[in-house]
Structure prediction request, 337 residues.
Amino acid sequence: MDTLLLTAEQTDKAGEILAHGGIVAIPTETVYGLAASVYDTNAIENVFKAKGRPQDNPLIVHISSLEQLTSVAKNIPPEAYELAKRFWPGPLTMILDKQDSISDTVTAGFSTVAVRFPSHETALRIISAANVPLAAPSANLSGSPSPTEAGHVYADLNGRIDAIVDGGSCSVGVESTIVSLFERPFRLLRPGGITLEQLQSVLGEVVVDRAVTAKLSENEKVRAPGMKYRHYAPKAPVRAVKGSGRDTAEYIRSRITEKTAVICYREYADEFSNCYVYVYGDETAKDELARNLFSVLRETDAACPDIIYIQCPDDSGIGLAVANRIKKAAGFDITEL
Ligand code: AMP
Ligand code: MG
Prediction:
């Protein structure tokens, strides 16, 4: 299949392809999504095939107005509207009771549906042009780092999907926060652009699912299937090092060989030599770390190092999301100093 490359102005064309059963990679503020009409089971199956995504990993449904929420979810608790008021449109996904019209293919057989109202203007225009909610996982090959630029999507999916809409770089850079409102206490299933602290300010108690911070054992129940897969992973083994910037830099420096890659904070870049060095942001600018993480992981991979060390931030604010993605890339191989 020839993959059409569209500009951010060609949202009508993208909508038309989607309305006719095609699958299209679209920019959002988090990462690029691979979209299909939520009502077209054949198109949804093609999304799974194009990504090589396991069938048991459900998709997020994207809406472009609050009115659409009731067409995909039911028994919506008041807290969902409180969250929507504060954080939608934006990088927050809510798990709610699904409407019967949402097929098991989208939800992987769950009785719940994941819903998000993105803020990216191009994404909103495409959903409106398609005139249906769009089911969309990240637009990468399953297991590789999520795409934050159209070029990343092209590298993974050219020839496997109908079109890619180029909307430039994603401003958040990590996937949406997923919160389950389907169970009490409410539960954070995946940290992302909306922080745990922000959720707590609206919901009060929020439990952090164990899969966010620790590797689950084989028979442990997984609430967000996506969290159980090794993910975001370059080919070389990744070693995450958590602690102060100074301590982690010292630790990594003493282990470098010329086939080592280091992903580090800008402040320490000059301290690493005779190895590959990639900066992903200032130590204190966690938004910048989130924005650059996936593209730096892809870049590092291209150098074919033997091993990748990465300075990992603490869990406050969006640090929880950055640390979660790093831990997953590292298969939870993390050194805490
Ligand atoms: P992706 O958009 O590729 O990041 O994948 C969507 C994420 O949403 C995956 O981690 C899924 O496991 C999660 N997800 C989607 N629907 C549900 C649901 N009904 N319950 C729990 N997690 C879900
Ligand atoms: Mg994904």
In short: The chain has a mean pLDDT of 95. The radius of gyration is 19 Å. The domain at 238-336 is CATH 3.40.50.11030 (Rossmann fold). The pocket of magnesium ion (ligand 2) is lined by residues 137-138, 146 (CB under 6 Å).
